[in-house]
Amino acid sequence: MYTQIEGNVYTIQVPLPDNPLRNLNSYVIKGERRSLVIDTGFNRPECREALTTGLDELGIDMNRADIFLTHLHSDHSGLASEISGESTKVYVSRPDGEIMRRNFFNGIDKTQEYRAFGFPEDEIARQNDSPAIKYSQRVLPDFTFVADGDIIEYGGHRMQVISTPGHTPGHLCLYDRANRIMFLGDHVLFDITPNITCWMGFSDPLGHYVHSLMDISTYDVRVPLPGHRAVSCTVAERIGTIIEHHGVRIREMLDVLRENPGLSTYDLSGRMSWRVRGKTNSWADFPLQQKWFAVGETGAHLEYLLCRGRVRREFDGRVWHYFDS
Fold this sequence. Notes:
Helix 9 crosses helix 11. The chain is globular. It starts with a strand and ends with a strand. The protein has 2 domains: 2-232, Metallo-beta-lactamase, Chain A (4-Layer Sandwich), CATH 3.60.15; 242-324, Winged helix-like DNA-binding domain superfamily/Winged helix DNA-binding domain (Arc Repressor Mutant, subunit A, Orthogonal Bundle). By secondary structure, the protein is an alpha/beta fold. The chain has 11 helices and 16 strands. Helices cover 35% and strands 23% of the residues.
């Protein structure tokens, strides 16, 4: 099932079963010559059925359509190769495309990273339960790389590619200046806060993210189109709220470290306040999938503080331990 946003711009709600994100907003720009699908959903049957049903109802022939991936996460990219036609281009940034290629050919093994965070071994052993691994692409597309400032045009919509690193190293937004429409991916979400985590070879992800938010705030956006859920305020208002959220987290983190010097990333996460599914949860009751996100986000905040000399760390041969500096 699809919903018309305006003109020839539509959204298809792709369910994300057993996931707190609930749904992916896959967007479609329907053109006479070629159409564009923006993000796809997990590579699992429920997602594919919803997406292909919506595309069929819209009369989209994937042999005359291309795909734009805002970023590499499998809830956005998992079905790209599955729904592609013979001539379909799959647009993505080079940083995210190269990560997907590396993961596809080498696999994803976060054992050393999770040990350095301080995860217990029994939880590390379950890393393959992650949806990022289970529901990723089974065939790798031949990516068409796009970069900041590039222009793509579909269905009369001339759109600028905007580089917004932070949520992933190569996250992208698309901006239709004439109609003041912005496809936001996971850069700005309105009733949940995008997860910012650590990436190998990508330093200071939170610093990059805040900088990217400030960049986006300079654009005139009439129709913001996020990757998940609905819109509840203006982009500028939401950016202010997100930046303040991270400021609150950093202040809380420093307070915890002052009282508990030498904590690992995992143990520091366990002393922070978190809300899952609308309620405050104790760390012992935290779903493991949410622990991966929470610890990764704590790690990104610690890296932000390390880069600015606000904390220091020591390695005991297995785990990093953090101290207020």
